[in-house]
Amino acid sequence: MQNLTKKQLKFFGFYYFWMIFLVSCTALDFYMDTVSGFTFGYLGAFIYFAVRLHDVKKEALTWDWGEDEE
């Protein structure tokens, strides 16, 4: 795993939180057998967040994060 600073973890945590949330919403819809247009919206949003996270991680390698505070 990458060595991430606390600032980076906070920043990427936003993406991870929403990806987990979207997966749980989709799983609940399938479990409760209430699949609707929202379910596919959740899947689309998940794909968007996954692609965006990949791009942001690549871009973040060039950012100056400053010193990590203890």
Task: Give the tags.
mainly alpha; elongated; 70 residues
Structure description:
With 70 residues, the chain is mostly helical. It has one domain. It is built from two helices and no strands. It has helices at residues 6-32, 37-60. The longest helix is centred in the N-terminal third of the chain and has 27 residues, at 6-32. The protein starts with 5 loop residues before the first helix and ends in a 10-residue tail after the last helix. The mean pLDDT is 86.
Helix content: over 70%
Radius of gyration over all CA atoms, rounded: 16 Å
The number of distinct structural domains comes to 1
Q: What general form does the structure show? A: elongated
Class of secondary structure makeup: mainly alpha
- Series of secondary-structure elements, N-terminal to C-terminal: HH
What's the total number of strands? Answer: 0
- Approximately what portion of the residues adopt beta-strand conformation? under 5%
End-to-end gap? 21 Å
Mean pLDDT: 86
